[in-house]
Amino acid sequence: MRIFDPHIHMSSRTTDDYEAMYAAGVRALVEPAFWLGQPRTSVGSYTDYFDALIGWERFRAAQFGIRHHCTIALNPKEANDPRCREVLDVLPRYLAKDGVVAVGEVGYDSMTKEEDEVFSQQLAMALEHDLPVLVHTPHRDKLEGTKRTLDVVREAGVAPERVVVDHLNEVTVKLVKDSGAWMGFSIYPDTKMDEHRMVEILRQYGLDQMIVNSAADWGRSDPLKTAKTGQAMLDGGFTEADVDKVLWQNPVDFYGLSGRLTLDPLPGFTGEAVTFEGNSVLRGARK
Fold this sequence. Notes:
It comes from Amycolatopsis keratiniphila. Keywords: Hydrolase, Metal-binding. It holds the Pfam family TatD_DNase. Belongs to the metallo-dependent hydrolases superfamily. One of its GO terms (molecular function) is hydrolase activity, acting on ester bonds. The structure is a single chain. This protein is 40% helix and 16% strand. It has 287 residues and is of the alpha/beta class. The chain has one domain (3-257): Alpha-Beta Barrel (TIM Barrel). The strands form 2 sheets. An 8-stranded parallel beta sheet has the order 1-2-3-4-5-6-7-8, sandwiched between helices. Helix 7 (173-179) links the parallel strand 6 (163-166) and strand 7. The longest helix is centred in the middle third of the chain and has 17 residues, at 113-129. It is globular.
């Protein structure tokens, strides 16, 4: 089993996580820019963070055999803080960097006027830089937030096939599928979505444009939820090719729209895919 985790916040994870992810089959990932857990009060704190995403974290992941990419944006939660608005002025120079494969996370937290404005501005930047878009749907009033998201994307003139709408569930998946956008699901221990519910969604809606991620961050989360979803798919009767489509080919196809993916094995690593055989895991090895 080879895995591309298309949404995981590795800045909040340890090197033990990187080792476990590689052992489970993760060979590439995307780390979206996000809220750090407390308010940032200046543009400088953002630029330091963005520099870490395109530099240090990319280097750190490579030490464990994993190709690191990121998305860059002013996230929805901080769009409401006037101290953060100047970040929009520095985004263009980061959106031009190697390894930046989308504009994101953008979208809604509380669905305020400020979030509307910042969302629209960043969709315009995505068009200007010819990048796909990663959209965060709100934790509260998710259905209305998803409807509003799709309306704003349409009004901005961004093609739906260049957008992944994330953190979906059984209530919102059909809405996004019907729009033509990619469907993102965050698999969590307690909230959002679990691997068994995910299998049923795949059974009902098919595998096309389905993106499964761990979205692991500062809170209770699990960076191996992608692999666990793959195992649940196999246990549920899906084939290894089905698992590869959902956990590798789909995120590669979506983020490949950026033209900036790097997926060849890192020097010093075998690059062998990890496969499931029965209930045991056959692990790729470091040279």
